[in-house]
Known about the structure:
Layout: H1 18-32, E1 44-47, E2 53-61, E3 67-68, E4 71-72, H2 73-86, E5 91-102, H3 107-124, E6 127-136, E7 144-154, E8 170-173, H4 179-188, H5 205-214, E9 220-223, H6 228-240, E10 243-247, H7 255-264, E11 277-281, H8 286-295, E12 303-309, E13 316-319, E14 325-327
Parallel strand pairs: 5-6, 10-13
Antiparallel strand pairs: 1-2, 2-7, 3-4, 5-7, 8-11, 8-12, 9-11, 10-12, 13-14
Helix pairs in contact: 2-3, 5-8
Amino acid sequence: MKNESIERVTLAHGGGGKLMRNLIEEIFVSAFSNDILCELGDSAVIRSGSAGKLAFTTDSFVVKPLFFRGGDIGRLAVCGTVNDLAVAGARPRFLSVSMIIEEGFPISLLKKITRSVTAAAREADVVIATGDTKVVERGAAEGIFITTAGVGDIPEHVSVGPERIDVGDAVLVNGFIGDHGVALILGRGEYDFKSDLESDVAPLAGMIESILMVCPGLHFMRDLTRGGIAAALNEVASASGKAIEVDEAAIPVRHEVSAVCHLLGIDPLNIGNEGKCIIICPARDCDTVLAVMQRHEYGRTAAVIGRVIEYGKAVVIGRTAIGSKRIIDMPSGRLLPRIC
């Protein structure tokens, strides 16, 4: 079915679901089309002479609120870019950090954010190599927006991509989903919910490097940001041409996340994360990969949640707790605004 032509941009176009995908494909891919861009990965994988394979990515952060349980826009900006590089199989090396600051923004908060950037970069073992600063008129930026770009090198023996996914592969996730999105719901104070739930925002490069050491033949990785695990799995299925079946009861979800989603009528599978990824590897390597993940700080609650199956079309199938099956579709419409 052909996508409807886009007349105006809405907030739903930034939600990570079908409308965002339509916007990217109709406007940006059609305008900038080239072999590298059209891969639509978390990072662009390029070759640069003697430097070998490099991963290059960029991202902008407009999260609301700027400070939330478990992190802030500074930590989020570093971790988001580091994770995009890491799931491409790269060792993150250098970042740029550009800040658009609203007139009147308190210097005390700016210092707090830059301290978070510094701490997150140190944890991820990346260098802030360059940046830029702009100040805009009062009311033009809701405090501060941050744009980061990152470069990492990919070992020659590492090659991850949807084309490598095969029937029988195992699908794993490194822990509880939905924490970041729900932490932001609570942080906005729009609902009378009480919880100590924290965002999962974290740099995953160290965990992923450990996985690649024991499983260099790993097939695919993707971080679970806007649109959550449902969007990521659908993108993987579409890009690989394979079907994915997941056991919904095996997907780790905290009670607090389930409760908030139930009250608001949101599927936890559609909630964004900032410290979670899916790993797709050959079934023979599944136990080894799971053990490595569970030994790492950011993978202690990792789980095997599904497998790639022969089905005849590229869909995501969920096996429910009562044994029935459903199609897990790509999220559509406005989900949670401003999660990153």
